[in-house]
């Protein structure tokens, strides 16, 4: 698994934890940063995970607007928390990180959904991200 794939998983953990606990994302990120400081072997994945989470914090309204607009009759609150977190990561990569090709962001998100969410989540995440990608 690549460092970026590991970073996406770490970012997913942080976003999911914050969402489920109802904690402020910045507080959850700070706690994870403290823990990451004691794990120098995982530094490569931590740096990109932090970049993702910071990006989601900075652009949350725009990211959520894209998700809601392209989720076709799904409200954010109705989506499984894991799917919300995965979509936020992928939308940040699609719209705010020029270093990641769209196909990679979408494929990585679909794989996370298949591994960590419901049986239908892979197709749901793919559909939403495909529409966002086509919309530009």
Protein architecture, described:
The longest helix has 28 residues, at 43-70. It is globular, with a radius of gyration of 14 Å. It has a single domain, classed as NusB-like (N-utilizing Substance Protein B Homolog, Chain A, Orthogonal Bundle), CATH 1.10.940. The model has no long low-confidence stretch (mean pLDDT 94). It has helices at residues 3-21, 25-37, 43-70, 81-96, 102-116, 121-135. The chain is built from six helices and no strands. With 136 residues, it is mainly α. Helix 1 (3-21) packs across helix 4, helix 3 packs across helix 4 and helix 4 (81-96) packs antiparallel against helix 5 (102-116).
Rounded to the nearest angstrom, the distance between the terminal CA atoms is: 29 Å
Label the structural class: mainly alpha
| Domains (count) | 1
Oligomeric state, counting identical vs distinct chains = single chain
The overall average pLDDT, rounded, is 94
- Main sheet properties: none
Strand residue content: under 5%
User: Helical region count?
Assistant: 6
CATH topology-level name: N-utilizing Substance Protein B Homolog, Chain A
Which segments are poorly predicted (pLDDT under 50) over 5 or more consecutive residues? none
Task: Indicate the percent of residues in helices.
Answer: over 70%
Task: Let me know the CATH homologous superfamily.
Answer: NusB-like
CATH architecture: Orthogonal Bundle
- For the secondary structure, the number of strands is 0
- The best one-word shape is globular
Mind telling me the CATH class? Mainly Alpha
Run of helices and strands: HHHHHH
Radius of gyration: 14 Å
């Amino acid at each position: 698994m690549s460092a970026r794939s590991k970073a996406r998983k770490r970012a997913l953990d942080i976003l999911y934890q914050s969402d489920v606990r109802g904690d402020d994302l910045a507080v959850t990120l700070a706690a994870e940063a403290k823990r990451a400081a004691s794990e120098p072997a995982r530094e490569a994945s931590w740096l990109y995970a932090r970049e993702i989470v910071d990006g989601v914090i900075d652009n949350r309204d725009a990211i959520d607007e894209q998700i809601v607009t392209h989720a076709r009759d799904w409200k954010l609150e109705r989506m499984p928390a894991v799917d919300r977190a995965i979509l936020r990561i992928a939308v940040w990569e699609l719209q705010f990180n020029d270093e990641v090709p769209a196909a990679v962001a979408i494929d990585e998100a679909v794989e996370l959904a298949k591994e960590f969410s419901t049986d239908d989540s892979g197709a749901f995440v793919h559909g939403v991200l495909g529409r966002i990608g086509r919309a530009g």
